[in-house]
Amino acid sequence: xxxxxxxxxxxxxxxxxxxxxxxxxxxxxxxxxxxxxxxxxxxxxxxxxxxxxxxxxxxxxxxxxxxxxxxxxxxxxxxxxxxxxxxxxxxxxxxxxxxxxxxxxxxxxxxxxxxxxxxxxxxxxxxxxxxxxxxxxxxxxxxxxxxxxxxxxxxxxxxxxxxxxxxxxxxxxxxxxxxxxxxxxxxxxxxxxxxxxxxxxxxxxxxxxxxxxxxxxxxxxxxxxxxxxxxxxxxxxxxxxxxxxxxxxxxxxxxxxxxxxxxxxxxxxxxxxxxxxxxxxxxxxxxxxxxxxxxxxxxxxxxxxxxxxxxxxxxxxxxxxxxxxxxxxxxxxxxxxxxxxxxxxxxxxxxxxxxxxxxxxxxxxxxxxxxxxxxxxxxxxxxxxxxxxxxxxxxxxxxxxxxxxxxxxxxxxxxxxxxxxxxxxxxxxxxxxxxxxxxxxxxxxxxxxxxxxxxxxxxxxxxxxxxxxxxxxxxxxxxxxxxxxxxxxxxxxxxxxxxxxxxxxxxxxxxxxxxxxxxxxxxxxxxxxxxxxxxxxxxxxxxxxxxxxxxxxxxxxxxxxxxxxxxxxxxxxxxxxxxxxxxxxxxxxxxxxxxxxxxxxx
Length: 602
Hints:
The protein is of the alpha+beta class. It is built from 21 helices and 15 strands. It has helices at about 5-25, 35-40, 170-180, 185-200, 205-215, 225-250, 255-260, 265-280, 290-300, 305-320, 330-340, 345-370, 380-400, 405-420, 435-460, 475-480, 490-505, 520-530, 530-535, 555-560, 590-600, and strands spanning about 40-45, 50-60, 60-65, 70-75, 90-95, 100-105, 105-110, 120-130, 130-135, 140-150, 485-490, 510-515, 540-545, 570-575, 585. Helix 4 packs across helix 12 (about 345-370) and helix 14 runs antiparallel to helix 15 (about 435-460). The protein is globular and about 100 Å long. Keywords: Cell inner membrane, Cell membrane, Cytochrome c-type biogenesis, Disulfide bond, Electron transport, Membrane, NAD, Oxidoreductase, Redox-active center, Signal, Transmembrane, Transmembrane helix, Transport. Belongs to the thioredoxin family. DsbD subfamily.
């Protein structure tokens, strides 16, 4: 190269460098370089059990180098990975790497295992990658560590999965991906909406009489402002607990709420509600010794928030004990936290979810403070009403640990006693008022329903909404299947044996994760699995059920094998033994929607 040409080249390089520096320092704050995790958002998930999907969301104006993407196994040592098959990218002549391939906007890779697993394995991977900004600034190489639970297929045929798209990713997977894509405020708003929807589910209903009982207990001293403070402390503490325990579950893969479903804890908490209910009936007053009352009275002159702490503590306990079921939004956040370790964004999403679930409670609490009469005999029937609701919550809790026929008998007793209090068996006076007639009518309905529940308990019924399901009018009806004929499995070995049998018979497999303390699981049994159309659609499917009520080591191993935190969850397997992950059902699904899912599946 001549001296003149070399001089021109050096002059051009200097000019380009000066131009780059000028461009960099002349950009506005909004154009400043993004943090590495914002420029290259990374997320990993398991697809078809032995295929790992690696996802990058690349910000506009940034790109990722193909040749700098490396995946290595940290542990266990025996797991080996196949070479990655990269999709087509954009050719780029780079000053550092020369002629290379880069990716803009997004990148999705499928990492396969060299050999099928023979047992459930937790695999920890290190993902190394590097990218640059179009303005000419390159980031140092980045490393992400992810832990994934992989399930063996016992050497059954494994077909190469197609590249996942939004249409064939599970619902919770789409929610987890949305956490990567969305802004912080959009994430908070989205999960606030999810919480509002979840507030309409039965898992949240028992919190209504709990909070109402706290508010009604203040009697004549209750004001609208005080009702708001009590409700807010209850809801805020519940949301904080939801976020904290959700983060721990996402990081450590354990449903800590399930730990609180211990029979002793449920019995004590149920007994507490019975005591509170009986005090509302006026059978006794719960109060502290006089000396302690005087001390607290003195303290209350300086501190007016003692009852707020009590409301907050009840909010924490209610969250841990009342509603341990897993729904799709919760599962999505837990997947995101487990894969990325981003406890801050995951915690914000869970807190927003908890606040959304608590908004109706807040409205009900404030309404109680505004609408309820403050004095007079009208308060007594209202206290009785909420006392009955607290007794219902107590029964609802212990039905998780008692036989179905016993709980049906308890419900029957509650309705019959309420009917007696409403004077269902008393004769109305000649000049009775409209309210007296209404009271007797409601009492008569409760009395009849209580008797029906007793008959249902005597016939072996288990569902308060269908107490006479076991009664039949003909021999033909005796063979009617009221629920799906599940085969129970206890551990991973049982599942593998069942999958092998289904493979030999060329059957699809449905695996239902169930627990006695899971309200949504019982909803599925009562309203979805009992539908004849669902039973017909599943007649050629091998039906398996894993009862994880005890939450023992085998139960947790089975849940961890599929990266599940807890029930309800329904998984589907193809005849070759691989899970069809995009069709996972997390949480309650109505019969019509579930039937559509089955039709798409086959």
